[in-house]
From TrEMBL:
PANTHER family given in the database record: LAO_AO TRANSPORT SYSTEM ATPASE, LYSINE/ARGININE/ORNITHINE TRANSPORT SYSTEM KINASE
Presence of the UniProt keyword Secreted in the record: no
Molecular function, one GO term: hydrolase activity
Keywords of the record: Chaperone, GTP-binding, Hydrolase, Nucleotide-binding
Gene3D superfamilies for the chain: 1.20.5.170, P-loop containing nucleotide triphosphate hydrolases
Protein name as it appears in the record: Methylmalonyl Co-A mutase-associated GTPase MeaB
Species this protein is from: marine metagenome
């Protein structure tokens, strides 16, 4: 993992964020090490999962919640 990519990410660079998301999704070899690098810096971040069958409104609910943030 490039230190400059992480530095850019932590300084708010959206391109670096996009690249990190791509790596997390598509690069199984680096996923664990990248996650271990990022996790300690996540502070009080939380994950919320939305599950349910197709068509029940998960995306609609998530879109509305994001607007409220």
């Amino acid at each position: 993992m490039s230190t400059s990519l992480l530095d850019n990410f932590f300084s708010g660079n959206r391109q670096a964020l996009a690249r990190i998301i791509t790596l997390l999704e598509n690069d199984a070899d680096r996923r664990v090490s990248l996650s271990q690098t990022l996790y300690p810096k996540s502070g009080q971040a939380r994950r919320i999962g939305f599950t349910g069958p197709p068509g029940v409104g998960k995306s609609t609910l998530i879109n509305r919640l994001v607007q409220l943030l």
